[in-house]
Please model this.
Amino acid sequence: MSKIGIIGAMDLEVDTLKSKLTDVTITKKAGMEFHEGTLNGASVVVVRCGIGKVNAALCVQIMADVFQVTHIINTGVAGSLNAKLDIGDILISQDALHHDMDVRIFGYQLGEVPQMGRLEFPADARMMELARSSCARVCSDIKALFGRVVSGDQFISDNEVKETLINVFHGDCAEMEGASIAHGAYLNKIPFVIIRAISDKADGSAEMDYPKFEKAAAEHSAKLVEDMVAYI
Ligand code: ADE
Model:
């Protein structure tokens, strides 16, 4: 029997999903409210983990230990690093990595967490496909691409930083939690996928665009997730 952990960093990324839950039990832990219930026929736990990589990592471990989830979905918004991804479009993670890890001095690649034996954390292939078919079903007017999520404790709004994330890490979108969720899911052997709708272009226009588009973008991602959980 599947139990799906659904993690968003901010209220606007999970509020609609929470409002659709039935048979809800709420558990508070580490300053987070875990809403356990049924969504579109599936057994789920929905939570707002808070912003940034530490909050996200803590949340994954609670999902694993306390709720024993079998799958993890991270839903939310991101800045685009790929010219093919416009505001409102969706990026489905192929993998995720930490762009702010730097232990090159000891021979590791930029972004590589020492002693993990890998740079990127691969998403579950079946969940990626399910996300793509859900998008075709419920958001057919929205473009969805597979790609790489790059995460750091940093809002990207500078053209030069953006170029680095593209050239060095080959990222398709930038956000602040995905790699930690991927990393935690990998360590706990839980299949995961990250679904991010584009709220801005992660450049000089991000400061203006993000507040304007974050809500609509978050809703795109949540709509896809609501459909997808029924097929896991
Ligand atoms: N989330 C949404 N847009 C972002 C950006 N430009 N940088 C980091 N996280 C984001």
Observations:
- The first helix runs from residue 11 to 19.
- The beta strands are 4-8, 22-29, 32-39, 42-48, 71-80, 90-98, 121-122, 144-151, 173-175, 192-200.
- The pocket of adenine is lined by residues 77-79, 155-157, 174-176, 199-200, 202, 206, 210 (CB under 6 Å).
- The chain has six helices and ten strands.
